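Quick question, first post here. What does this chain look like in 3D?
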Amino acid sequence: MQQAWIDLPPRLRVGDKTVRVEQHLGSGAFGDVYKVRDEARSKVYALKDVLCLNASQVLDAIREAVTLCQISHENIIAIKGADRFVDNQSNLHMFILTEYCAGGNLNERLARPSSERINWKWMSQAADAVAYLHRNDVVHRDLKPENVLLNGRGNVKLADFGLAREYIALRRVDARRNDGSWMQMFVQYYMDSDVGSPYWLAPECFAGHYTEKADVFSLGLLFFAILERDYKESNGKMYYGAFKRIRGVGKVGLGAAMAMYNPETDIAFSRRAQGSRDVQRLVIEALQYDPDDRPSAVELCNKLEETEDLDLEWLFRLLSEDST
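> Answer (accepted):
Ran it through. Tokens below.
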């Protein structure tokens, strides 16, 4: 899908709100995001602009809006309105208005130190949000630090549901595909973009056969990034995740290393990593090659909660730190 960034009119109508565009915040795989302000109430929102070049892309944009409308969780971005827009070149755009997260995205935030307490909060909130999605038969399919937003209080808000689908549809259609058409498109986008290779995908995604356990692997990558702070630099930008260094290739995302080089590829935390041994063990469980060896998102969430009682020394250290 091509990026949507255009010279938008200064004032736009989205649903029942008239908003004024204040700032272009960034571009993603499936649209551009702007900071806008409701003229009537002076409230700030985020506006996602998805350029739809064909009927399939229109349906994808509608699916994202519908998905967001059907879910409600404190750690998932809330939709505030949706509408369509035709630019001066007769191109159709879908607008999705959401709550605004002043804290930016997690990938940016990981460039700065954070306490054990904050790390645990991010992990716990992200796991709880994914567990909620899976309980409601929704698979995100694009979990990565850039799609984890932080509000003004530093709380997690999962975003960018352009690839999310109900799990029932995923089981009936995607998991049975032999051509891997959706994943080919997704991988090709990343290969052709400034982002580089798909660092955050589970190994089974490269073959186009996957279930909701692909989200669990991506969640494990997210947790590893939080605790280890390993990154790959591309075009002057740091992308945090879990990487393996392949001779003659350089750093490769863990899932890609498993899928393309060696299924037995494993990863370990360094001595500088944060988190208790119990928490690190949970992360490694989520990063298993075989989906059946990974816990479910619900199990991962529950086990993460249990770690509060498993390591008193670590817990004491959490309580003694400040929240910065």
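Residues 1-5, 167-180, 187-197 have pLDDT under 50 and may be disordered.
The two ends are 38 Å apart (CA to CA).
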